[in-house]
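haha ok so turns out i had the wrong file open the whole time. this is the CORRECT one, sorry everyone. sequence first:
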Amino acid sequence: MSAIASSRVERWLFPGWVAFATANIALMFVMPGKETIPFHFVWISLSIVYGLQPWSLRRTYVVLAAVCLVTGAALLRHVQNDVIGWEETTEVPLMSMVFLAMVWHVRQRAAAIAEARALAESERRVRDAQRRFVRFASHDLRTPVTIARGYTELIGSQTALAQVREDVAIVMDELDKLERIASRLLTLAQINEQSSLRPASVDLDALLHRTIKRWHVSANRHWWIDTDAGFVVADAERLEAVLDSLLDNAVRYTEDGGSVGLYSRHDGGWVIVQVRDDGLGIPADDIGFVFEGFRSGSVRGGTGMGLAIVKAVVDGHGGTVSAENVPGGGALFTIRLPIGARAATPPGQSRDVLVARNGDA
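then structure:
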């Protein structure tokens, strides 16, 4: 309804202005000595109409010339009748220059808006193409990886040669990496396609403890956890993917025996979750781009998908995530999540501090 009304207004805007301007020009002719008000009404209304409905340059110049001629003719008539002085006629070129300045600004703004819309459309097409690529690549990778893993395991089981077994282990390790990449591609595609989250009451402390226990056996690091966050309304599977991505990043940037830990606390209506390590930290050139997809750090290889997944999931929960280097070395990733409809903590549940090395937890 509003679109139809707007279309009608635009259709009658210029004819309405022509009628209004004609009436005021007539008043200029029949009201000697009092032509100032209708004169300015003509020019002001011209500027307003052009601002609402910009015309082509040709039409603009034609209308401007017509207004100059008729308003100038009225003023000249009054000059000839000694009603006004010649200096009054300078209003016509002055108002023309003011109008042309406004035309220039309107056209510049229109060009800027058109360019912004074109860029937005181009970015939308790029994002759509990227989503399609990510989705198809994630599915297409899985089949050859599965087949290659089967044949590699078969070769490993049928050989007694130590060198071949070492080669098989290397191939299996690379296939594991490919499988993780395919899994992250699929996760990223699902998040980018805004698949619905499945929020529920999640015991965040228990989730953090389970995550540490899974990771401490896979990497020789000093693992620690200090958590007292309680329950939060969130998608547990997505939060687990976030923690895995952050811990994978921490392991990659720390050496054997380095320290990696989880920390969580309440902060008003929010929950703070932090992942900290004492590794190489974030290169200065990359710290502003760590959450951009398909951009890896300059120190050690990576696809950049893990941290992109982190940001997408946290954003989907209405939270925020940030990264910084800490004094003495290492990186600190901080997640803020709204608690939501927070459930009560079961009575007597312990919020202990766990300090563990490989095999200690």
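Helices lie at 2-30, 36-52, 57-80, 91-157, 162-192, 204-216, 236-252, 305-316.
again sry for the mixup
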